[in-house]
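Data availability (excerpt). The following record was deposited with the supplementary files.
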Amino acid sequence: MDLSIVIPVYNEVESLPLLQQSIHAALKDLKRSWEVIYVDDGSRDGSVDLLTEMAEQDAGHVVVVEFRRNFGQTTAIAAGIDHALGDVIVFLDADMQNDPADIPMILGKLDEGYDVVSGWRKDREDNALTRNLPSHMANWLISNVTGVHLHDYGCTLKAYRREVITGFKLYGEMHRFVPVYASSVGAKILEVPVRHHARKFGKSKYGLERTMKVVLDLMAVQFLTKAANKPIYLFGGGGIALFALGFLGMLFLAVRKLFLQIDILTSPIFIISVMAAMTGFQAILMGLIAELLVRTYHESQQKPTYTVRKVLRNGKRE
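Predicted structure:
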């Protein structure tokens, strides 16, 4: 299979027929084999029945994965990846705000040598205050913290080569951070403007409450991509800094006692220095334990600590 399109579905029964028609229209001239994987995330509006009918009528292209209950968009995308057969995996929203007509253009960019092509809703048709403004703030924060600069992390329309997104698991709201994971294994990323349409049916499933989840997931992603393979650098670095702070505090108190005869134990600096030194020592120990866990993870499962783009042997690609 050349192409898999993964679409999370939650109460989108009105959009699904138009979406399927649009996908067929967009891909009819595409000289690649393709499939559409609809992952129903616990819909209660008849979406499952419609998807079942679509799978029967278009068995060559439509795959349906039905959850027992609502698990969230990230889990639906993860399930879609697990069931996808394509060498290229495209994510798409079910609400018709993304335009399937952009898929051939995105695939063309992949053919130029990129591993990830990310959509950018440059002219976004959403509420400026409740959707666009928080999105701009989140994109700025994620780009500056991770170093992977994209205008629109929240745009679902993205295309990936399979090999750059199958080495990790998604949790929480982490689907938006997939480009960061891909970048951590050396993926070449391109962002392109895509069309965005106002929602025709239903209402958005997301609100401002996602902001805190995104911030917490950003912290987790930053740790997993930057420090997971060498946690002693994070824990040990902070531990040494705290231990040094405690040592300097005690040195200051000793010098002050020696020359000014000021009691050491009555100073709050004494308590702060002792706590800093103890916390620093514990942080170093945590880093060593984390190192043991990382080595156990990689060695017991024979997980490589590197990723290979290609191998040339005798002038040929393996």
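Summary of structural features: Residues 268-300 form the longest helix (33 residues).
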